[in-house]
Amino acid sequence: MRRRLLLTAVLVGAILPFLPLLLWSFAERWFYPALFPEGWGLRAWSYLVDTAGRQIIDGLVASFTLALATTALSLLLGIPAGRALGLYDFAGKRLLSLLLLLPIIVPPLAVAMGLHRWFLQLGLAETFFGVVLIHLSVCLPYTIFVLQGVFRDYNPDFEAQARSLGAGPLAVFWRVTLPLTLPGIAVAALFSFLLSWSQYLSTLIIGGGRTLTLPILLFALIDSGDRPVAAAVSLLFVLPALLALLAGAQALGRGNIEGVR
Amino acid sequence: MDPATSAGTGRSCPVRRLLLLLGPALFLILLLFGGGLLLGLFQALGYPPLSAGSTSGLGHFQQVLGDADFPRSLGLTLYIAGTSTVVAALLSLVLALALVNWAARSRLIHFLLQIPLAVPHLVIAISLLLILSPSGLLSRLGSALGLVGSPAAFPLLVNDPFGVAILATYIWKEIPFITFMLLAVLKNIGSELAEVGATLKASRRQRFLHITLPIIAPSLGAASLIVFAYAFGAFEVPYLLGQTYPLTLPVWAYKSYSDIDLLSRPEGIAISLLITGTVLLAVLLAELLLHSSRRREGGR
Prior knowledge:
The complex is a heterodimer of chains A (261) and B (300). Chain A contains twelve helices and two strands, in the order ααββαααααααααα. Chain A is an all-alpha fold and 261 residues long. In chain A, helix 2 (18-25) crosses helix 12 (227-252), helix 4 runs parallel beside helix 7 and helix 4 packs across helix 9. The radius of gyration of chain A is 22 Å and the shape is globular. The two termini of chain A are 33 Å apart. The model of chain A has no long low-confidence stretch (mean pLDDT 87). Chain B is built from 13 helices and no strands. Residues 1-6 of chain B have low confidence and may be disordered. With 300 residues, chain B is mostly helical. Chains A and B meet through helix 1, helix 2, helix 4, helix 5 and helix 6 of A and helix 1, helix 2, helix 4, helix 5 and helix 6 of B.
């Protein structure tokens, strides 16, 4: 009985915020004090595909390519670093891991503002690569944090065995290291993707209003007061996170994105 | 910061190889994070090649710290970050203790708790705006029940002095985060210690205070610190759901930074550096606290 009560509380708590978004996104007419929409329709959803010069679709593409590029670079740099921190002992390791992980705790505000001027001089401001770099300053430390844990539980003796059987470095990576650490790497990639996906202020500062990602469009929509469209875009915005959750729950048994911020 | 890193792995690696593995990531983080903070500091200090105005030295910091709005902004920011952290930590503690034996087996609970983790803060803020605003769902529900006559009669829960909607957003987002951190520890301690306590006739309260709490305290502290630091430095939620006056520090920092008057730009950077300094101070204090408590345990 108590258990059912607890489950209900968690269920309602987790689902409740989506209710107003769903209702508003399908509402055509909904005046105060009606508890439910008085007219239903697909205006908000069709706005996403055919209005305003496909602005929303472009935002979706911008967000997606940014998150993808950031994640690829995060993994490229983060896998070796996570391996070094998770697998080996060396002098100054504690200090180094503190340094690499500090950006997780420290808010990105000052970093973005400090870099902005320099990026302007380098011609990186208002460019795709400039925004990738500022996202990377947030995502890479997280990726390293996850991968360090992954490699702590990893046994490199399998690599030695593969080498003794004549495998080259590339073959060892593709056929031993990668398959053994793949679930952890997938979690790290997901972390990085979702973190880049939800960046707002750093994109705004470095992108200078030129890089129109979904969160930036969403802010503009809230200001414009079009609640149905804002609700529909909000739902579009959470879709990758929910899809990843479902996929994770399928693939890993118990999903493992604990710790995503 | 991370207790697990202090335990050695027993493996060593040639320095050249270590440099190759760590070098690129270290370089990029130092360049972006360290460089960003340093360049920000130069600009806030009015270092000539980087500054547009005539103020140099600590002038911008003095101007911010001397501003009559500063104590109010700092107070509001501390209130929001502190209250949401304490409430989320307490609720997480209750939830984790209630779930500990069950969550290990229930995939449904795990899945449900992960939803708030995966959803961006911005979306939750928008949802709470639709629920708590004067013409929001809660007000409509109140009207249907005959409790609220008009939107104006509904208590102000958005853009209000107490930051109700901001607190609700943070608490909803952070409860699963802290709960998962606690569950990870609680799962590992098992029930043996509590059983020993029970055979020694310790009451439920004694077992909680003297067995469970000391074990989970470091994780609870670390999770709370991360949550506090996030809420202290985050922009979107208070920008969307907060009052126009006073502003939280991050909102004030961005407003100054993006002002048409370019001369207020260094002031915005100075505020953001003060935020960074406060968070670093909190991390340092937490480290010292952890160390001194460890030493006390060791000396016993």
